Amino acid sequence: MTAPFLSLAQIRNRLILTARWVLRDHRPGLDGRCPVCRTAGCPAATAARDVLRAATELRLWSTTAQPTAPDRNDPGWPLRSG
């Protein structure tokens, strides 16, 4: 499936999967350096951790609809029967 047809949840899940894949590949070796970047502070792993933190901490949308309080300024409030 291509990106224009993905829901927000699917895009979020793909970001999480990609970040996990990057962290798996850029895990520091016994010498403390990234095997791909060969640096001690791997920027790719740092970015992947930031993506995971943002994707799991922030809720960009609500999963359940929140009930709204009646608007007292609405001319139909309280509801009239009949």
In angstroms, what separates the terminal alpha carbons? 51 Å
Q: What is the total tally of β strands?
A: 0
Q: Structural class, please?
A: mainly alpha
Question: How many structural units, i.e. domains?
Answer: 1
Write a compact overview of the structure shown.
With 82 residues, the protein is mainly α. The protein has one domain.
Key phrases:
0% strand; 82 residues; mainly alpha; 2 helices
Give a verbal description of the structure.
The structure is a single chain. By secondary structure, the chain is mainly α. The protein has one domain. It has two helices and no strands. The radius of gyration is 23 Å and the shape is elongated. The protein starts with 7 loop residues before the first helix and ends in a 25-residue tail after the last helix.
Describe the secondary structure blueprint for this structure.
Layout: H1 8-25, H2 43-57
Helix pairs in contact: 1-2
